Amino acid sequence: MQTAIAFDDPSDVATRLAAVGYLPDAAIAQVVFLADRLDKPILAEGPAGVGKTALALALAEATGRRLVRLQCYEGLDEAKALYEWDYHKQLLRLQADEGGRWDDLEGDIFSESFLLSRPLLEAIRSPEPVVLLIDEVDRVEVETEALLLEILDAFQVTIPELGTIEATTRPLVVLTSNNTRELSEALKRRCLYLHIGYPTIEREKEILLRRIPDLPDVLGTRIAETVATIRELRVRKAPSVSESIDWARTLLALGIDELDGAATEATLNVLLKYQSDIDQAIKDLPLSQP
Amino acid sequence: MIDTLAEFVEELRAVGIPVSMVEALDAAEALRVADMGSPEALRAALGATMIKSARHYPAFEAAFEIFFGARAFPDEGGVEGDVVASVTPAGAEAGGGGGETADVLMAAIVEALATGDDEALRRLVAQAVELLAGMEPGRPVGGRYYLYRVMRRLDADRLLASLAAAMVGGGPEHDALGGVLLDARARRALERLRDELRAEILRRLVVDRGAAPVARTLRRPLVEDIDLMHATRLEIEELERAVGPLARKLATRLANRRKHGAEGRLDVRRTIRRSLAHGGTLIDPRFRPPRRSKPELVVLCDVSGSMATFARFTMQLTYAIGNEFSRVRSFAFIDGLDEVTGFFDTRSGFHDALERMNREADLVRTDGHSDYGAALGEFVARYPGVVTPRSTVIVTGDARNNYRASGVEDLAWIADRARALFWLNPEASRYWDTGDSIMSLYAEVCDGVDQVRTLRQLEAFVERVALPTARPPGVRNPRSVLT
């Protein structure tokens, strides 16, 4: 198996991610670098909308690798995650050759040309290295997690009829979790753990300015500070980074360049998605008063 | 470095963070390949390899600060470029007549914070600790008192005001919201100063006594080991953050009894439909989705004074479950009982709900001391239809009944009708049945009685609820007391 090293050092990670529009903090850059060097998957955990999935997308773009994505959901199984035998094709093969000897046929229909690759198998069979994103891994049942273990730790898949398929190249693996449940120890032990929280005000402002080049600097500061203050309120769903980007876009589209209390109140529904949260913010922040 | 790492791992394990052998080796490997030029890089590397839960990060960071923080600025030590000396004339007493020294330092610190000059800030912080903390070598302390001393001398209120004054300009601050944001900015700067001071004090403590002893002094329980009965306000906030995932787990465990892979009855219509693609061969059988059971949860919480902290926590848990799981009915009691489900619906925030419950629910009949007998009697009389064979009933309370009638026959009535009845007691099991506690009397009719003093014990309980045993109709519960 060839190991392709994607990054020279953490600052290389930072520059190249920044070049594709993702601004990592020091911890993210370091962990990505280690994942590349130690050949370990990254388990990114944190609240929704702070850029966990975006990290994988940005990694693919920055390294020029193909992104293979496995979206997890309750009830995900082997046939959807790893591989499946192509029953229909096997059946046709059997019908086409009715007089054939069973031994020949068996060897034939359980060969690679009758195998349907699902994302995990596809990621390790790919001739050039890929970025494998296993999204929202906390949605699958604990038992299903076990499916992932072999691939995460040895980059191989064992198919009973065929034997073990080893990776030709090491994929860069990113798993994301919204922390709706604790993942199993076995899974966590195999990964580098990266907690992505809400960014600092300075970083959030930088992200805003990077994503929306037209945004005036002063407005960017104001947005970042307001969002940080709202996150400290007791709200059910704190605004995510993507929501603050949406908010900034909304303000720009409405032509608001001075964000006062009234303008904030009028556009709060972009930032907060529960009526009770909006009420809470209106109660706790001096918005409409002059 | 490897020696320090070994000591560090030992400390993490002592705090209760599970660091496996493999993870410690990964950390060592990370140290080998990565450039550890900055404390952030080092922290990221160690954190990523050894800490696998956000819950453990605060403890990890505290220990990291002790073991590796001191190494972050190796060039420091002597206080050079002495701001105070250069500003105050020589001979202006540095130690005794503090007022002036503190003023000069404060002005310089405000300046450094407002302009974001980290280098200067670090120097000033070192000086402030040197001059104002009055640290005594060799004392086995955690440094909180030293921090308090410095902050008192620097006068936090005045500091905050001058910070706000120095920071004006950076947005339209003339409106009310701008004022709030400005205050927040000043508060963050003050917090930053506090962190820097804490780090500096810690650094000196470590130089004085070595990392491991300081870590031992400062060791705090992990969130999952915090005593729910005696949690501080700060700890309660930590707990509230941790409770969400646990509630979701309990909700899914109760609802999702479908075994993975187990499918329902054969769906003849769809199977035949599918067979058309294969010339009528029934090769691809289809099954109906399995029927999901729709269990219900009924929670009875003792919210009397002695249970205040724990009750707050159980209500939080109930609220969080309510967010996940629609079939929850919650009741609170002291010596009267009232349904509180409505207060904890998902539209209002938890803290509003708690306030409304305290204001509006009718929980006190006579004197406001727990009366389980009266409460259980009232439940059976007023809400007889709530408990069905699908309900799991959870009672939380210390079973301290102030020597009143137990009402155990009402509890037995509930147990007979429910799928399962669990009792969670926040008191240490060795105190059960002492004084006015009548725990074992109630335990006789419960499916399980658990001591739940910490999140970890609650988690263990949730794991067990995960395996509900279907009871054939008409068969009474096997009574067992789990500790």
Give me a quick take on this structure.
With 290 residues, chain A is of the alpha/beta class.
Description:
The complex is a heterodimer of chains A (290) and B (483). With 290 residues, chain A is an alpha/beta fold. In chain A, 49% of the residues lie in helices and 14% in strands. Chain A starts with 9 loop residues before the first helix and ends in a 6-residue tail after the last helix. Chain B has 483 residues and is α/β, with parallel strands linked by helices. Chain B has 4 domains: 71 residues; 128 residues, no CATH class; 28 residues, no CATH class; 170 residues, Rossmann fold, CATH 3.40.50. In chain B, 52% of the residues lie in helices and 7% in strands. Chain B is built from 19 helices and 6 strands. Chain B has a 6-stranded mixed beta sheet, sandwiched between helices. In chain B, helix 17 links the parallel strand 4 and strand 5. In chain B, helix 1 packs antiparallel against helix 4, helix 2 runs antiparallel to helix 3 and helix 12 crosses helix 14. Chains A and B meet through helix 2, strand 1, helix 5, helix 9 and strand 9 of A and helix 2, helix 3, helix 10 and helix 12 of B.
Which spans of chain B of ≥5 residues are poorly predicted at pLDDT below 50?
72-97, 468-483
CATH homology superfamily of the largest domain in chain B: von Willebrand factor, type A domain
Which word captures the global form of chain B? globular
How are strands sequenced across the largest beta sheet of chain A? 2-5-8-1-9
Globally, the shape of chain A reads: elongated
Q: In CATH terms, what is the architecture of the largest domain in chain A?
A: 3-Layer(aba) Sandwich
Provide the succession of SSEs of chain A: HHEHEHEHHEHEHEEEHEHHHHH
The CATH architecture classification of the largest domain in chain B is 3-Layer(aba) Sandwich
Helix content of chain B: 40-55%
What's the Cα radius of gyration of chain A?
24 Å
Strands side by side in the biggest sheet of chain B: 3-2-1-4-5-6
Multimerization status:
heterodimer
Whole-number total of structural domains of chain B: 4
- Number of H/I helices of chain A: 14
Main sheet attributes: strand count, strand direction, barrel closure of chain A: 5 strands, parallel
Number of strands of chain B: 6
